[in-house]
Write a structure and sequence with these properties.
The protein is of the alpha/beta class and 221 residues long. It folds into two domains: 133 residues, 3-Layer(aba) Sandwich (Rossmann fold); 66 residues, Orthogonal Bundle (Arc Repressor Mutant, subunit A). 49% of the residues lie in helices and 11% in strands. The chain has a five-stranded parallel sheet, with helices on both faces.
Length: 221
């Protein structure tokens, strides 16, 4: 049976590079490409038994690591490899802390990306040379909030993302094609699961998933 791999990146040129790496690593693979977190959720719902997701760290609709944490919570058996223009050790460490099976810098040459894909598909974790040893010396941060975020349902996660964008209940209801009462129920559930009392606290909480300003130049991520 052909392996199914999802490439999630909003940069067409890098999607093409990743597709080329996939074709070299697994010539018979079935590849799906998406450009946003919303499209990624839909793709995974259609193919929950996919073999690998290559996830751009700065996907439209995601807040830093929130997309990774959500996927790990909803699909714990689905390997996710983060792909980023950043080579900051803190970014790599947090990716692994939040459940990624690997981290591929966008500066990596094609053969290295190919090796990374093969390694993860074989069940290994992949990091650039020398990085694993450095990360072992770094203290892992508290991931309590990531556990809470991972407990959200797909619809609750969508609602939280829209809250973080400053959308009103009626706007969210319109976009999701449900009633405002349904959105209020989702928001209540989100507040309860995240342990917050209002929108402001929820937005502050989700910002924990954002990259630190010192983490990188966001261009090219």
């Amino acid at each position: 049976m052909a392996q199914h791999i999802i490439i999630a990146d909003d940069h067409p040129l890098f999607r093409a590079a990743l597709r080329q790496a996939v074709s070299q690593a697994v010539p018979e693979a079935e590849v799906a490409e998406v450009e946003s977190i919303k499209a990624l959720q839909a793709a995974v719902e259609r193919k929950p038994d996919a073999d690998l997701i290559l996830l751009d760290l700065n996907m439209p609709g995601a807040h830093g690591f929130s997309g990774l944490v959500f996927l790990r919570g909803q699909y714990p058996g689905l390997p996710v490899v983060m792909v980023s223009g950043s080579e900051d050790l803190q970014v790599m460490r947090r990716s692994i802390d939040y459940g990624a099976s690997g981290f591929i810098p966008k500066s990596a040459p094609l053969p290295e990306i190919t090796d990374a894909i093969q390694a993860v598909l074989e069940g290994d974790m992949w990091l650039p040379e020398g990085v694993a040893e450095k990360l072992e010396r770094m203290q892992a941060e508290n991931t309590d909030f990531s556990d809470r975020l991972a407990s959200l349902t797909p619809q609750q996660f969508r609602v939280l993302g829209m809250l973080a964008e400053g959308m009103l209940n009626k706007q969210i209801a319109y976009d999701l094609d449900v009633s405002e009462a349904t959105i209020k129920a989702h928001i209540t559930a989100v507040f309860r699961k995240l342990g917050v009392r209002n929108r402001t606290q929820a937005v502050i909480a989700i910002q924990q998933m954002e990259l630190d300003p010192s983490d990188t130049s966001l261009s090219g991520n």
